Prior knowledge:
The complex is a heterodimer. Chain A is built from eight helices and no strands. By secondary structure, chain A is mainly alpha-helical. Chain A is globular. Chain B is mainly alpha-helical. In chain B, helix 2 crosses helix 3 and helix 5 (68-76) crosses helix 7 (97-111). The radius of gyration of chain B is 20 Å and the shape is globular.
Amino acid sequence: MPPTSESDALLIQRIRAGEAEAxxxxxxxxxxxxxxxxxxxxxxxxxSEDVVQETFIGFLTSLPNYDVARPLESxxxxxxxxxxxxxxxxxxxxxxxxxxxxxSSQDEWDLPGSVRPASSIARSGERRHLEETALAAALSTxxxxxxxxxxxxxxxxxxxxxxxxxxxxxxxxGLSISEQxxxxxxxxxxxxxxATVRQQGLPEDVFPELYExx
Amino acid sequence: MKTPFxxxxxxxxxxxxxxxxxxxxxxxxxxxxxxxxxxxxxxxGRRDAGVHSLGEIWRRHRLxxxxxxxxxxxxxxxLPEEHAGYIGFHLDTIGCRRCQANLVDLKSQQAEAAExxxxxxxxYFESSAGYLxxxxxxx
Lengths: 214, 139
């Protein structure tokens, strides 16, 4: 996903200046994808439109805290996800977790790199954000290299392992490759990320997956 | 009762990032299994303690989400076969909700009646523009 485009940054600048036409343009640009995102969960058009409406209002009220370095679409989707979660909780479809932080979505999207309210963060939010940014950059470089070389199988393997959380044998079956090939890709992937953690002096204990057996 | 969901799936559930059917499955299982709710609470606890997960970072930064223009090319069928194959994998096997939403939107732009879209956009604008002018008044 590319970073914020120049046209999005310019649009935000005009909205911050209070230009109604710019706000109209943002709505036109993003409402369709937000509506599709919400509607897959709610399956009802009117309720989905209400959630999108709340998303746009949430965006404007949180605009002073929005960092234009963050891609606009991702930011809007994160607000929509919180508004959707709140809606599902109100409907009783999404159970509320006992003693869980993040029980309400209020302003959570204001926190870059974290979805937890500040009061419950045991370590410094800034430090956590730096750790995440460093690892995301390393991941992005590695995936970018594979993409340039059209090594799609490696990307698919890593995505199944770490985004879907599948076991090596299930990844092997899903991609029709050997378990040894999966283990090799995983070893290579984790080794490179561990090198980044070492080089940047990041704490190892906050990235436990990097030190698991391949 | 042991639950079959992986840690990565439960993290994605908390981020409203799984396909709708998988989200519903977890909610259904949570009602029947107090153990599952406890696992989710424990995941929130790990996050609060500052533990990162690769899947969480990967999703939040949308590291493998294709750009919208790429999705448009995918729809038009003009991407090289292997590249298109990867986008299909990301949409269908990984089930990326945000990219699926973009694809639905791109498709519906061709199909939906212009008046219905204009009316919806007018409604969003009218209900939110007041917040815009209030901001303008403050600055």
